[in-house]
């Protein structure tokens, strides 16, 4: 029998991705192979695509794609809980490819009610986990700094539970999406000092019970800190991966802030979030599909990364689609 082959992306650095032909991965006894339909493009992948010096090249084929979904195509000998043909979201690390394998515990079923809609499970699981750790309740005031994919969906969830939601961003399109998702107030503009003053004025100078920093920059961390009220909760959801950050510890101490780093590192917590995301979509509490604005074929991953980097008007999130092997 001829071994199954696949197309996979190999990142070469310097904003260059190429397609390579490789053997499809074979599932071990407790693994499942998924024929991928698509994979979301995560902004956290930009540094490895750009060729930052702390990465080694070429990257492993398919890496670092981690937002894949598709159809169960092969089962390891010990796997009984899945059937060939079931549609799943998968927590894996080589999903810029036509196939990937993952432990059976790293899959989440996608019910038929979702149809064939794209479903990047990992970031949607992140949204649910961040929201859980934010502990947002009815009647609270919530400020979200950053109107990307995560920030806008968090605004929707916060609105659904009865919080008053303010979203701050430089991106007019992101703010428009936040309003569509239920944010009562949005604040734009290029100058963060003005944004801070306007946001504080909306709270009568008090600040906000919950503030979610969802952009991953020093300046947005500073702004989020300044907007958090006494005994409030500052939630760091942005991915800060470009070095050290400074914080105003006097401010944090004086306000007696709770500070939460809302990033998960155990597969179990990611998968639990993905399961909750599926249910939230089915219940109508979460609607990510209008935010999946740009799709490219796998061979055009460079273009999808460039869109993610530049975020033109009308862009929220890109994903790549797979063709049959």
Helix/strand layout:
Layout: E1 5-13, E2 16-23, E3 31-40, H1 46-50, E4 68-75, E5 87-90, E6 99-103, E7 107-109, H2 121-134, E8 141-145, H3 149-160, E9 164-168, H4 172-180, E10 185-187, H5 192-202, E11 208-213, H6 218-227, E12 228-236, H7 249-255, E13 258-261, H8 267-283, E14 294-297, H9 301-310, E15 318-321
Parallel strand pairs: 8-9, 8-11, 9-10, 11-12, 12-13, 14-15
Antiparallel strand pairs: 1-2, 3-4, 3-6, 3-15, 4-5, 5-7
Helix pairs in contact: 2-3, 2-8, 3-4, 5-6
Oligomer: single chain
Question: If helices are DSSP runs of H or I spanning 4 or more residues, what is the number of helices?
Answer: 9
Helix content estimate: 25-40%
CATH superfamily of the largest domain: Medium-chain alcohol dehydrogenases, catalytic domain
CATH architecture call of the largest domain: Alpha-Beta Complex
Beta-strand content estimate: 25-35%
- Using only C-alpha atoms, the radius of gyration works out to 20 Å
Integer average pLDDT? 96
SS elements, strand count: 15
Distance between the termini: 16 Å
Q: What is the CATH topology classification name of the largest domain?
A: Quinone Oxidoreductase, Chain A, domain 1
Please outline the major beta sheet: 7 strands, mixed
Main CATH class of the largest domain: Alpha Beta
Judged by helices, strands and strand pairing, the structural class is alpha/beta
